[in-house]
Specification:
The chain is α/β, with parallel strands linked by helices and 220 residues long. The protein contains 5 helices and 13 strands.
Length: 220
Amino acid sequence: MSTPLTREQIAQRISREIEDGYVVNLGIGIPTLVANYIPDEIDIMLHSENGLLGMGAFPTEDQVDPDLINAGKQTVTVVPGASFFSNAESFAMIRGGHIDLTVLGAMQVDATGSIANWMIPGKMIKGMGGAMDLVAGAKRVIVAMQHVDKTGNSKLLSECTLPLTGINCIEKVVTDRALLEIKDGKFIIKEVAPGFTAEDIKEITAGPVEISDNVKTMEF
C-alpha cells in the first residue's frame, strides 16, 4: 500500500512554487514548514501577519529568541534586512495586494476554488483570523492539506459544506497524495505522490476530477 507524504514533504513540494523576489505569507500548520525548504538560489521575503517581514527558518536550540515568533506563536529566525511593524501595517500590506503568494491549511476545498479553514459549527473558536484577508488580498493562494479526513472522507469536494473563508480564490492544492490545480470547476491532477496513480487520486476525491495529459510523480 502506498504511503502518503509527510507534512514535511508537502512543505518541500510547495517550496518549489515560490519564485525569486516573492513576498510570501505562510499560514499556521503545514504551511509554516515551507520556511525550512526555501531554495538557496532564490531571494524572497517571508511575511508574518503579526508584524514581521523577513522571517527565516525555524531556529536551532542556540538561536531561539522568545521575542521572535510567527503568527502561530512559534519561534522563528529573521534574515538580514528584516523589519518589524504593527499588526495594522501588516494587514495593510495584505489588503493592499503586496503579498505575492500565501500558503494556507484547510479543512475543505471545493472545485470552484473556495476554501473552508476557520471553523466547524458547534465547536468553540477564537475567530476567523487573517485567512479571510489573505485569500482576498494575496495574488496567489496555494493550500497545503491532507487529502482525506480521519475517517477517510475526501476533503476535496464539489462544494464546501463548512462555513467559507473565501470564494473562488484557490489556485492549487498540494495534499499528501497529489498536486491538483483548480480550473473550470474541476480538480486537475497534475502530480501524484510516489507510489500513487492518477486513478488512485480520482477515486478518493469527491469533487469533479480531470486527469492531466502529462501527470508527473512529485519531486522534492
